[in-house]
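Data availability excerpt. The first of two example chains:
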Amino acid sequence: MTTVVAADPLAFDREHLWHPYTSMTEPTPVRLVSGARGCRLEVDGAWVVDGMASWWSAIHGYRHPVLDAAVTEQAGRFSHVMFGGLTHEPAIGLGRRLVEITPEPLERVFLADSGSVSVEVAMKMVLQYQRGIGRPDRTRMLTVRGGYHGDTFDCMSVTDPVGGMHAMWAGLLPQQVFAPQPPRAGSGSAEVAAWATTLRHIADQYHHELAGIIVEPLLQGAGGMWPYPPACLRVLREVADEHGLLLVFDEIATGFGRTGHLFVSELVTPDILCLGKALTGGYLTLAAVLTTDAVARGISGSEAGVVMHGPTFMGNPLACAVASASIDLLLGGDWQGDVRRIGDRLATGLAPLRELPGVTDVRTIGAVGVVQLDHSVDVVAATEAALAAGVWLRPFRDLVYAMPPYVIEDDELDRLVGGIRAAVEAG
């Protein structure tokens, strides 16, 4: 047994706790959070504006009384119960809400426990569906370059194999089929048509092996914050239908209003939809996979007859209760106006940064603002500069970006823009 001597908590953290994408032997600095409220975090004793919404999940900010009450009330009943053979009102209520607010064909709901797991489940559904309708040889997924779908193994296999974060695992992952990255949002019909021609050619070439198509619709997230035209989604739907493929939309980052649409799936309806992140307003880990009755029947026709997945914390009551409260809170307010206000203010505030040395692009979509550099960001220096300006940011690769809570005030947005500028100049 290891004896741990009481000491500075940050010293213990540095010696014993891994953080995301961080070395254990040469860790970069972490900051101690001791409080959170509204759109602000108390970091190392100072209150700063959170530009990340805790990796895009805390859309209502922190310590929202409605969400606090939902968790407290459910904890007073029971915090967890296995979902195998049992059910409960929080899960039933959340399932009902999800069916009501997503496109009509999506009426079967699988409650997973994280975004990556929801993608794993979706890919299992695709494969089991193809087996269930008599096409077991269809085992590969078609996707596009520049995507990111999570850190578990099947998720890594559909993440960009060269420019993504998982290139070191290439020889161990299932070999999927990759089409070019879609053209940039705002591209003309000629660029979209050229991309579509290439995509169709690849689908034609591999159609006998393909089971489904998976993409992040309209905005690629952690792969590079890349927005692309809605017309590309219609092409994907057509290709899927032509070849008998299931179309999967990974809306873990884009769902619940982030792009200006409640769900991008309102524009083009997929066969399977993955949701997460903002689902619980950032309170607890939870994800959902929605699919159609036709897909469910296909899965039931496979040799297993059931979806071969069942997490211990599937349908966790605390998470389901706060997710329902978060959805009601979102739909009961002016989320569209808030997203539009954030996007407009970010677009105006970030535009001058195009003139800074090293900046190659500034782009916005919905409540997302992105500054792209011509070099990898010095994350430590950029973070220090942003904190000095009163803002918490977490740059990555060549990007300094923000996806703030929807409840952020205009003065906080102005401070956020200043923090982004400071990070760009330092990074």
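And the second chain:
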Amino acid sequence: MIRLFHVNAFAHRPFTGNPAMVVLSQGLDEFTMQRMAAEFCLSETAFVEAITGDHYRLRWFTPQVEVALCGHGTLAAAHVIWTQGLAAPGQPLSFDTRSGLLTAVRDEAGIRLDFPAIEMAPLALDAAYAQALGVSPRQTWAAGAKFVLELGSEAEVRAIHPDFQALRVLPGRGLIVTAPGQDADIDFVSRYFAPWVGVEEDPVTGSNHCALAPFWGKRLGKTQLKAYQASERGGALLLRVVGDRVQMTGRALTLSRGEWLPPAA
């Protein structure tokens, strides 16, 4: 039996944060995983395969492609493992992924993930991207395969209404917009648009913060930061930069669970 869990990650209450489907996926092939992710049509479906009691293989798929790193899918997977009693509550978890070994631990603030930091580099980005978002960026950057537009204020980030038709004709993988927070309790905000992989706007994107946390940490002179992804659903992350790693903490809750019934041959 293949069990399924619909989880809100980086969420304090239902219908916020980023929804992920978690599949306990022993023995599924890649073709089936991609078709299942397309069927669920969430920004990510996480496929978890047990290796030992605290060690798992983890893969993530959007409705269209497999991705190398996913924060909310990892958070959701760890949440399911602990809440289903597959590991003791105080037992750290480790995941073999396309981005190397990732770990998760529980603490009083939620679930803390340990991810690799991503360095941002200045990039001369075609003005068509900013035009499609209706913004005037202060600077543009590359964060791996993703483009980053730095704006002047949180209000500008929140006011964006992208022209997705215009974005789709441009080459890309994902487009991050970010700015300083306007309140003392939020260091920076962001939003993320990725129509190229079947996700127009991702509600809360943990992997982006592998780049944003070191970037804003240097700007603000901090190693511990509070971030908010200002999508319609919204989500908060507690971040800590430790050398070439980023620790991100959030909460998760299960909305529904069921089982996958493979179609008859």
